[in-house]
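Deliverable D2.4 — example input (C-alpha cells):
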C-alpha cells in the first residue's frame, strides 16, 4: 500500500471560530478487495474489475466553532470525492459531518446535544461483496449532568443510531439502535 497526500489548510487551532481545508491524496492498493493470494481468488472478481487500484481522494472540510456566553456550538463538515482509476464503478462521494451544542444552564447544569452524519464505502476486509456498498449512518445523542458540588454529580443521556447499506444483499446488516445511560459520580479533587 503506497500513498501520497498534499493538503492546503489554514493555520488554525481548536479555539478558532472557523477553519476551511482542501486536501487531495493519491494512494495505490495492490489488493483492494482483500483477496487471498491463491490463484482461484482472481476468479471472484466481477468482469472488468482489477485486483489492484490507484485511488484519488479530493476533500473539502469546514469547521465553525462559535461561543455565546456559556453555550458553544461546533459544526464540522467534510465532503470527499473518491475516484478509482481501474475500478470506476466504485467511484463515490463520501461525507463525515457533525453538529454539537455544548450547553450550560446556570452554574450546575451542563451537557451536550449532537448529531453525526456519515456516508462511506464499506470495508472489503472479511466481505464477500466485491463492489460498491455505501453505508449511511445517522446518530444523535443528548447528555446532561447536574453537579451541585465540585466532587458530586448525577448524569443521564440518550442516544440513537441508524446505519443502512446501499448494497441490497447486505440489507440484513442494516441496524437501528438506541440506548440510555445514567450515573451518579464522585470525582476526587485531591492531587
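Example output (designed residues):
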Amino acid at each position: 500500500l503506497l500513498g501520497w497526500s498534499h493538503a492546503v489548510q489554514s493555520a488554525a487551532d481548536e479555539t478558532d471560530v472557523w477553519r476551511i481545508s482542501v486536501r487531495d491524496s493519491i494512494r495505490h492498493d495492490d489488493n483492494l478487495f482483500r483477496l487471498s493470494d491463491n490463484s482461484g481468488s482472481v476468479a471472484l472478481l466481477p468482469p472488468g474489475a482489477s485486483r489492484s487500484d490507484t485511488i484519488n481522494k479530493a476533500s473539502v472540510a469546514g469547521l465553525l466553532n462559535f461561543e455565546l456566553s456559556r453555550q458553544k456550538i461546533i459544526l464540522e463538515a467534510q465532503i470527499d470525492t473518491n475516484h478509482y482509476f481501474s475500478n470506476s464503478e466504485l467511484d463515490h462521494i463520501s461525507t463525515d459531518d457533525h453538529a454539537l451544542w455544548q450547553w450550560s444552564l446556570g452554574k450546575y447544569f451542563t451537557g451536550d446535544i449532537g448529531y453525526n452524519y456519515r456516508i462511506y464505502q464499506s470495508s472489503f476486509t472479511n466481505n464477500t461483496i466485491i463492489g460498491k456498498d455505501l453505508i449511511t449512518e445517522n446518530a444523535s445523542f443528548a447528555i446532561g449532568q447536574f453537579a451541585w458540588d465540585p466532587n458530586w454529580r448525577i448524569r443521564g443521556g440518550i442516544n440513537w443510531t441508524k446505519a443502512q447499506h446501499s448494497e441490497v444483499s447486505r440489507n440484513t446488516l442494516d441496524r437501528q439502535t438506541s440506548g440510555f445511560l445514567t450515573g451518579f459520580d464522585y470525582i476526587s479533587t485531591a492531587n
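The longest strand covers residues 53-68.
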